[in-house]
Design a protein that fits this description.
Oligomer: single chain
Function: Catalyzes the reversible conversion of 3-phosphohydroxypyruvate to phosphoserine and of 3-hydroxy-2-oxo-4-phosphonooxybutanoate to phosphohydroxythreonine.
Largest sheet: 7 strands, mixed
Low-confidence stretches: 1-9, 377-383
Mean pLDDT: 93
Number of helices: 9
Strand order of the largest sheet: 2-10-9-8-5-3-4
GO molecular function: O-phospho-L-serine:2-oxoglutarate aminotransferase activity; pyridoxal phosphate binding
Shape: globular
Subcellular location: Cytoplasm
Cofactor: pyridoxal 5'-phosphate
Helix content: 25-40%
Distance between the termini: 37 Å
GO cellular component, one term: cytoplasm
Amino acid sequence: MILSPKTQVKKNFSDGRAINFYAGPGAIPLPVLERVHAELFNFNGTGMSVMELSHRSDEIQFIIDDSAERIKKLMGLDDQFEIIFLQGGGSLQFLMVPMNFSQPGDPIDYIDTGYWTGKAIRSAQSLGRDLKIIASSSDYNHTSVPNLNQIHTRPGAKFLHLCSNNTVVGTQFHSFPEIPIPVIADMSSDFMSKQIDVSNLSVIYAHAQKNVGLAGTTIVLIRKEMLTKICEGLPEFFDYRTHIKSKSNYHTPPCFSIYITWQILRWIEEDIGGLENLEKINQKKASLLYDFIDSTSLFHCPVEPSSRSQMNVVFTIPNESLEKQFIYETSQAGIIGVAGHRTRGGCRVSLYNGVTLEAVERLIFFMNKFAKQHSTSVTQVII
């Protein structure tokens, strides 16, 4: 395949790969790609690719079951949660969550922190629920998350829904509210990037394409006590219990996508040494980039420091034409995916699990060089 000049990029690393900061699908760890490549034509002595195996085969069911067990082990969970792998992206969960845990007219509470929570809210409203936005960051242009100490849910609300990390605006909750109703978290962009305290969470869902796989798989963790709260009369496909009973094999699952998730979970456990080590790496990547941005006069991060995302670093350049030049020059240097979301503009660098510390250091080196060329007052940062 010959790419057009517009889509061609110079390769930065010696292995010919570009530095990938796309917000999703995100970068896949190179060791995972190498393992997938090695067994692409013959998985585990079957003489077939994983892409060819029957979804009813022992091999596929093992991958599904072992993935769930690895998630439990990495997160320090016991048998308090059921784990299933679904299709339909995180967006399908915007419907499945209110369908399973509320009925028309029931009160459900939501926290609005930007683009994706807006979609979740509109989806739930379409089902005729009594939805209330109990906290929102819209008044300050989504530059920080609401103060959890000031969040008050309604008596009788079936659940509180929030998004833990907001990819578009670069904000993140670093803890979860302690409230008397179930908390349901969309963790699509920070799931398996750090250790989390699940004691206040009843349901977690995450599309895999950021930190733990490819587009096509959505991972859902449901506290077992929530199963008794599921509404009756749902279509089978939309009932979480259907997928739990069928062990994520109710219909043909996205086998290859789940396989990639399995390989990444193995990488986190066996290569990185678990979520504690991975969290330290991710924190260092984010700290390096934020510290550099804050040290310059050219780049500006609008997000309040206490709400800054460890996964998605957003920043701007005061001059719009210079910002466009920066985005263009990064692509020519083999650094891709730094343009901000189409609804927000600016720049965005996504630091998912597959992004290496070396990649961040190379980006900062480039940014420092660019800043020296276009700013008269910038602190020099040496990597």
